[in-house]
Amino acid sequence: MRVDELETRAREVCLAFPEAIEKTTWGHPTFRVRDRIFASFAVDEESGRATMTMKAPPGEQEVLLAVGHPFFLPRYVGSKGWIGVVVDSGTDWSEIAELVEESYR
């Protein structure tokens, strides 16, 4: 999938929740509810990888990181319990939707 297709898919998942809005912050889309960010989409400038970040469910950050790819500890927000996910043509979007839903709550 092209990056724009991945971004469109991420947008569809994130904006499916009540009152969810998109706002560009730090040069990329962030998804919010009542001005609280619950997910973001970005393209890593160095690697060109498309990624999403969202708050991991309680106790799940370590479990997801132990899985390895596609999960990673994101800069800046990883220390606050967030998880990063590389998104590409092999992404399980139902899993992404579940993680985003947990973060949205």
Task: Characterise this structure.
This protein is of the alpha+beta class and 105 residues long. It has 3 helices and 6 strands; from the N terminus they run H-E-E-E-E-H-E-E-H. It has one domain (3-104): Aspartate Aminotransferase, domain 1 (Alpha-Beta Complex), CATH 3.90.1150. The protein has helices at 3-14, 61-67, 93-104; strands at 21-25, 28-33, 36-43, 50-55, 71-72, 82-87. A 6-stranded antiparallel β-sheet has the order 1-2-3-4-6-5, with helices on one face. The longest helix has 12 residues, at 3-14. It is globular. The mean pLDDT is 94.
SSE layout and pairing:
Elements: H1 3-14, E1 21-25, E2 28-33, E3 36-43, E4 50-55, H2 61-67, E5 71-72, E6 82-87, H3 93-104
Antiparallel strand pairs: 1-2, 2-3, 3-4, 4-6, 5-6
Overall number of strands: 6
Strand content: 25-35%
Which structural class matches the secondary elements?
alpha+beta
Q: What is the straight-line distance between the termini?
A: 29 Å
Largest sheet: 6 strands, antiparallel
Percent helix, as a range, is 25-40%
Supply the CATH class: Alpha Beta
The main sheet orders its strands as 1-2-3-4-6-5
What CATH architecture do you see? Alpha-Beta Complex
What is the arithmetic mean of pLDDT?
Answer: 94
DSSP helical segment count? 3
Q: How would you classify the quaternary structure?
A: single chain
Secondary-structure element string: HEEEEHEEH
**Radius of gyration over alpha carbons?**
13 Å
Question: Which outline best applies?
Answer: globular
CATH topology tier name: Aspartate Aminotransferase, domain 1
